[in-house]
Design a protein that fits this description.
Blueprint lengths: L1 H9 L7 H27 L3 H14 L2 H13 L3 H13 L3 H13 L3 H13 L3 H13 L3 H14 L2 H13 L3 H15 L11 H16 L3 H13 L3 H13 L3 H13 L3 H13 L3 H13 L3 H13 L3 H13 L3 H13 L3 H13 L3 H13 L3 H13 L3 H13 L3 H14 L2 H13 L3 H14 L17 H11 L3 H13 L3 H13 L3 H13 L3 H13 L3 H14 L2 H14 L2 H19 L1
Helix pairs in contact: 2-3, 3-4, 3-5, 4-5, 5-6, 6-7, 7-8, 7-9, 8-9, 9-10, 10-11, 11-12, 12-13, 13-14, 14-15, 15-16, 16-17, 17-18, 17-19, 18-19, 19-20, 20-21, 21-22, 22-23, 23-24, 24-25, 25-26, 26-27, 27-28, 28-29, 29-30, 30-31, 31-32, 32-33, 33-34, 33-35, 34-35
């Protein structure tokens, strides 16, 4: 649109005025009238060609009575074009059998157009052998409509090779529907997904694109839609948008919807809404759903509900599912269940999963399980994972693992984590590592941490770090610890801090300990206290030990007791020693008990 606007603005794109168009039309009418007069005079003088041409002119104008006499006269004189046109005239008047007789005469005389018309006549009558014979005669003479009609007949009969041959012949001669259908055939032969096709399929995909392009350039709106889809998938969004726009302007609702999504992704939601509205008004359920989602995001729930209902009325099951989501967000559980059920009964797998979750939350585990199963069998990865959770909750570990494995195979991160942990419990460390790597690569902080612990257990102990030495490079396990730590995993943060401290990087260690402690990790708070105490900041260390001890850390309580004893705060020290005894572990409890007894003796003395 922008390029066209620029051409208009520079004056390089000429725009005819209304007066110029009227003048051109008047001139054409005058020229046609003059030609008719010349042909009529020649026909009256016995010119057979003039009779044939005049009859064709009158036929095109709709003057059947005037055309028939001239065409019959030319046909009687042996003009095959006149015989063909006479057949067309009689066919339009409803005399199909008489028309076929004249088409046969013209076809036998070598008229490719008449052979095409005769082939179409026999196909309409159900006589496919005769239809194929005459269409083949027409196609072999280079008649583009004959080639296309023959290809259509052969495709209907299941002769894919023959259909492709003649569809290609028609497309090469400029038939846009043939070009589109040839592209569709090549596209299907290349596979359902253009991404990741093998080398053998690539030429067919590339050729399909070229035929889509030719058909689209000739104004085929569905070809423009498919071309836009190919370009969008390839990341060529600007050109994809141009073809979507071309197709949408020609009335293709799916292209208008696709253009809306392209504009939305570019941040232009207002323009996107305009095209979605146009598509939705033409009955596109996907566009109606998109409008519903847009209004729901804006908090306009009533308008959103209206568009979701419109999508449902257009036959899009997502409409009912989205209505269920909308009602669930508003706390209208009964209505949500109603819409989920409607979509689920129609085969919507995510609605089945959502319905099962709703029933499970309501305590109806028996009712939830069949819907989880239905969704999982339809390919819902989330439902398969949820079934795993359901069976695990009942203690049915084998059944749970089967569902987890299915979900993990489909790329579900948390399911891969569960399988990895199950393999660890079984002692199969290699398989555990494989699943944990999948889950960690998918973004699971817990999987990254557990993978790091597996790798950590294998590595040999690091040599003691000496001051002045260059710190050793980070191992793979430390990299996984850091990935988990950066995602907020508290135990990973503490472990990264410990590894940094072992390398002598006190600043890095303190940073990770502090981050873990502030997130509520008692080990992080304790270790941060140790680090601060070693650096001479005992008052701040006490603050963190107190936080760790209050959270149940026995060693932190013992440290506080020692600090109090050293300061002479015997009663406070005894209180923290008591706390350390109760918290443990055993060796901490023993030391704390001895300290407590000593403090008690000091107090009693």
């Amino acid at each position: 649109m922008g390029d066209m606007a620029n051409l208009f603005g520079t004056g390089r794109f000429a725009q005819p005025s209304g007066q110029e168009e009227s003048a051109d039309e008047a001139q054409e009418a005058a020229d046609e009238a003059a030609e008719e007069v010349r042909r009529r005079l020649a026909a009256d003088a016995g010119d057979v060609e003039a009779m044939s041409v005049l009859g064709a002119m009158l036929l095109r104008r709709g003057d059947f009575d005037g055309a028939e006499s001239h065409l019959r006269a030319a046909t009687a004189a042996g003009d095959r074009a006149a015989a063909n046109n006479l057949g067309v005239l009689l066919h339009q008047r409803g005399y199909a059998d008489d028309a076929a007789g004249w088409w046969r005469i013209a076809a036998v005389a070598g008229s490719a157009a008449a052979a095409h018309a005769l082939g179409r006549h026999f196909r309409e009558r159900g006589d496919e052998p005769a239809a194929e014979y005459w269409l083949c005669q027409s196609a072999e003479q280079g008649h583009v409509l004959g080639a296309y009609a023959l290809a259509d007949l052969l495709e209907h009969r299941g002769d894919g090779a023959g259909a492709e041959r003649w569809m290609r012949a028609a497309a090469e001669r400029g038939h846009r529907e043939a070009a589109y259908r040839l592209a569709r055939t090549l596209d299907r032969s290349a596979g359902p997904d253009r991404e990741g096709r093998d080398r053998a399929a690539a030429p067919a995909a590339d050729e399909a694109e070229q035929w889509y392009r030719q058909a689209a350039a000739r104004g085929h709106r569905r070809a423009a839609l498919h071309l836009g889809t190919i370009l969008e998938r390839r990341g060529e969004l600007k050109e994809a948008g141009r073809w979507y726009l071309t197709s949408a302007k020609d009335g293709e609702a799916r292209a208008a919807c696709a253009l809306g999504f392209l504009l939305r992704d570019a941040g232009d939601t207002e323009s996107a809404a305009v095209w979605w509205l146009r598509a939705a008004q033409d009955g596109d359920g996907n566009a109606a759903n998109a409008l519903g989602a847009l209004h729901a995001e804006r908090g306009e729930t009533q308008t959103a509900e209206r568009w979701y209902r419109a999508a449902m009325d257009a036959g899009d099951d997502n409409g009912a599912y989205n209505l269920g989501l909308l009602c669930a967000e508003q706390g209208r559980t009964a209505q949500a269940e109603q819409w989920y059920r409607r979509a689920a009964y129609a085969g919507h797998r995510e609605a089945s999963n959502a319905l099962a979750i709703l029933l499970l939350r309501g305590g109806d585990e028996t009712g939830a399980e069949p819907w989880f199963s239905k969704a999982a069998e339809a390919g819902s990865v989330d439902a398969a994972f949820n079934l795993g959770i359901l069976h695990a909750g009942r203690g049915e570990e084998r059944a749970a693992l089967r569902w987890y494995e299915g979900a993990a195979a489909a790329g579900h991160t948390e399911a891969a984590l569960q399988v990895g942990m199950a393999r660890l419990r079984d002692g199969d460390e290699r398989e555990a590592e494989r699943f944990l790597r999948c889950a960690a690569g998918g973004g699971s902080a817990e999987a990254a941490y557990r993978l790091a612990t597996v790798l950590d257990a294998r590595r040999p102990p690091a040599p003691a770090h000496e001051l002045g030495e260059t710190a050793q490079e980070k191992s793979e396990c430390e990299e996984w610890y850091e990935r988990a730590a950066s995602q907020g995993h508290r135990r990973a943060q503490v472990r990264v801090g410990m590894l940094a401290a072992a390398r002598g990087d006190v600043v890095e260690a303190a940073r990770w300990y502090r981050e873990a402690a502030e997130a509520g990790s008692r080990n992080g708070a304790f270790n941060l206290g140790l680090l601060l105490a070693r650096e001479g900041s005992e008052p701040e260390a006490v603050v963190w030990w107190r936080r760790a001890a209050d959270a149940g850390h026995g060693r932190a309580a013992l440290r506080l007791a020692l600090v109090c004893a050293r300061r002479g705060e015997l009663a406070e020290g005894q209180r923290w020693a008591d706390r350390a005894v109760s918290l443990g572990p055993a060796e901490v409890g023993e030391r704390a008990a001895r300290l407590r007894d000593a403090l008690r003796q000091e107090l009693s003395a």
